Structure formats: C-alpha cells, structure tokens
From TrEMBL:
PANTHER family: AB HYDROLASE-1 DOMAIN-CONTAINING PROTEIN, HYDROLASE, ALPHA/BETA FOLD FAMILY PROTEIN. It holds the Pfam family Abhydrolase_1. This is Alpha/beta hydrolase. InterPro entries: AB_hydrolase (IPR050471), AB_hydrolase_1 (IPR000073). GO terms for molecular function: hydrolase activity. Keywords: Hydrolase. The lineage of its organism: Bacteria, Bacillati, Actinomycetota, Actinomycetes, Pseudonocardiales. Residues 26-264 form the AB hydrolase-1 domain.
Amino acid sequence: MPITETRVATAGAELCVQTFGSPEDPAVLLIAGAASSMDWWEDAFCARLAEGGRYVVRYDHRDTGTSTSWPAGEPGYTGADLTADALGVLDGLGVAAAHVVGISMGGGIGQELALEHAGRVATLTLLSTSPIGSVRATLPPMREDVARSFAEPQPDPDWSDAEAAVTAFVDGERLFHGTLPFDEGHVRELAARVVARSTDIAATMTNHWILDQGDPRTTGIGAITVPTLVLHGTEDPLFPIGHGEAIAAEIPGARLVPLPGVGHQMPPTSVWDVVITEILAHTSR
C-alpha cells in the first residue's frame, strides 16, 4: 500500500507524518510511546488498518525519526508540547476528529486529549499504558528486574555507533517483552530502521525522559466520555495488567481486552489478528 509522507508545522517544531489509505475514510491517529519514532507502528500493521477502511496517520514525535531534534539532554519543549503536537498533526492534515490509538506514553497523551479536547477524539484506544491523574485502585508495581534497570542504569552505548545503538534497542525490547517468543531478528530489523531514520539517536534516547511534565493531574480519567477500548498485555512488566484494569474500571463504558503473553511492547505479529480486529470494530462506532 502506498505511503504518503508530509511535514507538519506545530508550535515550535516540524514533524514528519506518514499516512496510509484514503483521506475520505475515518482517520486513525497512532501515537507512539516515549523515545519511539513512528517506525514501531509497522508498515504492515498500518496497511491492514487502512485496508479495513481507515485513514491511518502515524508521526515522529519531537526528537525521534526526522522530526525536529534538540541536543541530547537539552529538550526545548515540555510534555504538554507533545500532547499539543498530536492536535497539530490533525490540524495539518485537515482532520477535525480522529480515532486516537496510543501506546504507553502515547496512551497518556490519548487520555489527555480525551479529557481536554474530547471534540477531536472520536474514540480512544489505549495500549500498554497507565491511568493519568488520580485513580481509586492501587496500581501494581513494575517487575523487579525492570525496576532494577531504572534504579541501576547501565552506561549508555556509543550512540554514534549504529550497530551499538541497534543492539541497545534490541536489549531493551527483550527486557520489556512478555512470555511470547522473542523474535530477535525481526526486532533487530525494526531497530536498524529506527536508527537509520533518526536525526540524533542520542537525543531520542535521552530527551523524553527528562521533560518538564508540569503539575501532576489531580482529576481522574472518570471524566472521559469518548468510547474507550483498552488493550493490555497480561505479562506487561512495566505497567502490569492491573493498570489496564484500572483504566477500564475508571472510564465509563470502557472495555478491556487482555492480550495473553504480551509484555510492554508494540503488539507482536502473533496478536495482530486480535488487535486489528478490535481496533476496526471499535472505530466503526
């Protein structure tokens, strides 16, 4: 399926945006996680959504892919700007409202959009993410080895060495994957594409983690009114499935679909039939 690429100017940045399918079809906006370019939304995944009659939009966050980049350790923007960028992408494409699909940090952005800009969100699909703001449930902690990786970080590789950067990506994906077989060859191929497309991979792997996120949100996601689907891996080591259960319990009418064996990762190909079918059904509302 042909891919159309364009550049969209937002407040203080220029973002690389790619689309699949016809602009006449309902738009699906795919929002990636922290330090993730749009490449992680695989071409074949996007094409299958488009073949289901959707206008699929993916984009590089600031400091990922070929979007505007800042020096590593010096991001000239905030977490709020990343949320505003999602609206900027829709504005740039002339899309009044989209079916928003966000994973991890992208799921947090999706929740913010549904709370603050509900008129721009036709439906919301949340993958591998955690509720923003206050929640009634006690959320389970991350798996011990993942917690240790944050508490005792290893030295960064030489990001100017493409092979070392690819290996770092693969090692990170291995840590966060679930109990399904880990397809190292496939992950390495994706990581090589990410590294090759990145303006500054050191900035990609640094800047999103040190952003000013502003004051913590105090209102809960119970105020979200758009139809919401929650897709969450049963073996997510960063946000255990209790996080997905909490989202589904807080948002009125939300539905949870557990993904057996999936970790904190883009849906692996083995569950695409479930994920794509669920998204197409949800976005037909």
